[in-house]
Specification:
The protein is 9% helix and 52% strand.
Amino acid sequence: MLTAITMAASSVAQDGTTAYQFLNVPVSSHVYALGGHNLTIIDDDINLVEQNPALLGKEFDHQVGLNYMRYIGGTNFMGARYGQGIGEHGAIGGAIQYFGYGKMNATDASGAIIGDFNASDLAFTLTYSHDISERLRGGVNVKYVHSSYETYSAGAIAVDLGINYYNPDNDLSLSLVAKNLGGQVKKFHDQRDKLPWDIQIGLSKGLGSTPFRISVTAYNLTKWKLPYYEPADKNNTSSDLIKKDKFASNLFRHLVFGLEYLPTSNVYIAAGYNYKTRTDMSTYKRNFLSGFSIGGGMKVKAFGFGVAFAQPHTGASTFMFNLTTSIGELMR
């Protein structure tokens, strides 16, 4: 039964080759609107730090961020994050994130239902960042992860290392992040599970004097080949499956594309396309929206709001909401 529980929890992510896949689920609605992966967006939103610790800085002094996501099935994710500047060139932060997968049936050896149980994951994060130069910043996330599925539990420590270059003169942001380095400190049973470690790079660039900004993020760079399967008859998902493993499909399954419209410094409208998400759904009830995501946000006085929506397949609509506020601004 443990295997079934672990698979159920891992199903919230796109790739189930390792455990703790929930670590790849974004907590920022801005990032989710841009395709689910983004290391480079410069915005007044501390939730972005989850993607890249180098995005934390003293500009987030005393900022609080809250997030909620209604994910596939009966899963609900929520969390909180706080940041504070230290000295002239540093910042620290902390976060807690809850991933709840709802109730599941408990069965005996014959498959008879004997009750139900809850499954959940918790992640506690400490963040530190430092300005290396005027335009270059580095950061680290240290995460302790606790998983609880029925009577089984496990724990792990993961570290993210990030660096960001930002040139405000031409609105150019470049980032490199090593994610989820580390390992388990407590196993579920006898098997040691691997963390979903990854190398990611990203670019965001404003388009001259226009109110548009583009982003490209490359992820899963620890493995080139990411084959997928699709039905031989695209009108019949039960038909024989064909393996897709050509150069172009592998390339685009590593890339996420985002586009933003920024009419003012306090408003954004964003859209993203994730080819891997779309092709992962090729054997399910995929629709036109699979792989696409949209969202928007605005800041009103001391509060920032963000929403995002995606529909990986016809039976799974996902919605995310973010709220940020600065304690310092509230007290003025």
